[in-house]
Amino acid sequence: MNKFCEECGSPITPSLNFCQQCGHQLEQSKQSNQATVPTTERQPRKYSKKQKIIMSAALTLAVILGGFYIWGNSYTSPENTVERFVKALQDEDHAAIRKLTGLANGSSLSETEAKAFILLAKEKSDSVHFNTLNLEEFSSENELFYITKDGKWMGIFDQYSFVLKPQYVELFLPFADVENTLNGKEFPIYENEDNRIVYGPIAPGIYQLKSSFSGEYTKVDSEEKVIVADTSSDWISHDVELSADYVTLELYNVNGVPIENAFIEINGQKVMFNEDLRIEELGPLELDGSVSITPTIETKWGNVESDSFSLEGNFHEIEVNTVSEALMGELSDVILLYGEEYVHANASYDEKVFTSITDEMREDFQSNFQYYRENNEHFSGQLDSIEINFDELQFTDGSHASVPAKFYFTSDMHRADEQADVDERIDHCDVEIFFDANTKEWLVNSSYSVGGWYSNEFHATKTIEGSKEFYEASIKASSSESEVASIQVSNEELDSLIEQVTLDYVYQLVEAINSNDYEKVSQYIKKGSALNDMQKDLVERLSDEGMTQEVINASVTSIEEVDGKWIVTTDETIKLIYESGKETTNDYTWKYTVEKEGESVALVDIGD
User: Fold this and answer.
1) Strands 189-193, 179-182: parallel, antiparallel or unpaired by DSSP?
2) CA–CA gap between residue 113 and residue 134 (Å, rounded)
3) Distance, CA of 187 to chain centre
4) In contact, 543 and 562? CB cutoff 8 Å
5) Dihedrals φ, ψ of 439, to 5°?
6) What residues does the TcaA 4th domain cover (predicted)?
7) What would the pLDDT profile of 180-215 be if each residue is shown by its tens digit?
């Protein structure tokens, strides 16, 4: 039976004769030599007031400590930690989440990360599961985090917390110098190379990614929601899209006018095209259509400002019309002068009238005028107007250009003994113009007739009024007043005459086809002959088909007399131009039958 000190009430050790608490000397038990020891009655122990207070406090403390220990073990247990974690997610208590979680690298969650993680749990139930509080089930269903022992709480109880698997966001940027924030905050950069940047480690969550760029030409930004939740911590890849990019511009010189310089202006700055008429990697610029640019072309004939266009892609081929007002004015002047000189020179058959043509073209007119005089053909007429399509102006090199034009005449081709029966005449021509760098003048080098089919596709961009000055044919006496195509010559010149008439026939047949005017060639063909009917049908048929032709070359290779007739062999190269625009060039060898008709010759048949 335990014994207590009579002075302080503390338990005493039986082997000691004093109290360890107060030092009170204890009485020794008297041993009796008698066989029988009388039984003494135990008296109730009396405690002092102080002893009672101490005993009560000790008992209370023991109860409190015992209860606290039991509560502490329960509070810090894994099961209760799960409950507190789930409640913090449900209550969106980011402060509690920060206390209960951390990353595997030992870093704590920022407030931004805690909010992003709570949003992930709220919106992506497949990423964070808290439909059970059973520790084993909770751990197996959630792979983005795990529970682990995390030291001692108050130095006594085992403490537990959640470790979130670190996440990495890999961003592919459209260009350099793009700044990125997640939920308005900058995060550590794990890798950074070229236009790729990796942020991490960060906590799993749903983040608002804001990307922005501020450069020389534009400011753009974008916002996107990024879900960062990979259970293996693999990188989450994302393409950043901004409504801006670098732009490449390339000029297509529609008209071929020699360009000295070309540029655009943007934000008050002039940006030049290179020698290949390209601007490489301009920008970045906004590509939402809000940015418009206007190319300006510099030529020796002045500047041309092209139409403005909006940027909506990173490559633009720009078709530019390089014909300046000054250039159109110069070309209009020389074409008008040519038209006026044309009627004057044709009426007088005097090529010296021309001041607007090249020497080569002057020689062609000289030959034509000689032919017309010899064949008793005379021109009377006036220039009414000229239409020009400068949209189709085309430079073939730095000094040669061609432009479609329509010449409107009131005129007639007639014999010397006939009055001019004038009517409207329209010549559809492709006018070739040459720029003489020495004299700084434009000269007409050719005016090739393209036939009636061209009128359907012709669109006049400029109309010039002619003087309407009428020129009557200047009739001069000639060595012959005979029928058309009859040229009086001596017998020794007969072969030369046959060759000339045959070649003239070849060229005038093409003119007849191009103008749908058989009369232009009928003068070389004997009336009533097989060739007359054949070629009349040919002119009508090819004209209906919309075909035109051009003589590339024609020559007489032999003349042989047979039974009072002549078989004339020719080699001809003819370009055929179909209504579709397709062209073919063919070589022909023909044998024409030519008969003498009085002092004249005429073609009567054709064979191969």
Assistant:
1) unpaired
2) 26
3) 35
4) no
5) -95, -10
6) 244-320
7) 999 999 999 999 998 999 999 999 999 999 999 999
Dist. CA 366–CA 386, nearest whole Å: 24
Q: Rounded to two decimals, what is the model's pTM? A: 0.55
State the average pLDDT over residues 475-499.
55
Same domain, 253 and 363: no
279-283, Cβ contacts within 8 angstroms, sequence gap of 24 or more: 279/247, 279/248, 279/249, 279/250, 280/248, 281/246, 281/247, 281/248, 282/217, 282/246, 282/247, 282/248, 282/249, 283/175, 283/215, 283/217, 283/218, 283/244, 283/245, 283/246, 283/247
* Ranges of H-type helices in 132-176: 135-141
Q: Answer with the one of 285, 320, 355 that is the final residue of a domain.
A: 320
Q: Are 307 and 329 in a shared domain? A: no
Number of domains in the chain: 4
Classify residue 29 by burial, with Cβ atoms within 10 Å: 0-12, 13-18, 19+: exposed
CB 506 within 8 A of CB 570: yes
Q: What percent of the chain has pLDDT over 70?
A: 83
Can you give the CATH number for the domain in which 301 is found?
2.60.40
End position of a domain, from candidates 116, 131, 156: 156
**Residue 63 pLDDT grade (very low, low, confident, very high; cuts 50, 70, 90):** low
DSSP assignments along 215-250, one per residue = -SS-EEEEEEEEEE--TT--EEEEE---SEEEEEEE
Mean pLDDT of 160-175: 93
Residue 458 in contact with residue 451, Cβ under 8 Å? no
Q: Residue 197: what are its φ and ψ, rounded to 5°?
A: -140, 140
> Quick check: 348 and 471 in contact, CB under 8 A?
yes
52-74: b (≥16 Cβ within 10 Å) or e: eeeeeeeeeeeeeeeeeeeebee
Token pair for residue 365? 């007119």
Cross-strand bridge partners of residue 250: 278, 317
In a domain, 558, yes or no: yes
Contacts of 396 (CB under 8 A, 6+ apart): 256, 402
Is 230 within the bounds of a domain? no
Please give the residue range of the domain that contains residue 510.
491-607
Q: How many CA atoms lie within 13 A of 482 on its CB side?
A: 16
456 and 350 fall within a common domain: yes
Instruction: Say if residue 315 is in the same domain as residue 402.
Output: no
CB 150 within 8 A of CB 160: yes
How much is the pLDDT for 477? 39
Closest by Cα among 587, 597, 574, 571 to 498: 597
Give the start-end residues of each E strand in 267-373.
269-272, 278-286, 292-293, 296-299, 302-305, 309-310, 315-320
Residue where the block lists tokens 């799993």: 204
Contacts 24+ apart (CB under 8 A), 484-490: 484/375, 484/376, 484/377, 484/415, 484/523, 485/375, 485/523, 485/524, 485/600, 485/602, 486/597, 486/598, 486/599, 486/600, 486/601, 487/374, 487/375, 487/600, 488/599, 488/600, 489/599
Q: Are residues 453 and 506 in the same domain?
A: no
Instruction: Compute the distance between CA of residue 383 and CA of residue 347 in angstroms, rounded to an integer.
Output: 12
Query: In angstroms, rounded to a whole number, what is the distance separating the alpha carbons of residues 47 and 325?
Result: 127
539: left (phi over 0), alpha (psi -120 to 50) or beta: alpha
Residue whose structure tokens are 């009636």: 452
Residue 62 has pLDDT above 90, yes or no: no
- Which helix (H) or strand (E) segment holds residue 540: the answer is helix 530-544
CA pair distance 443, 433, nearest whole angstrom:
6
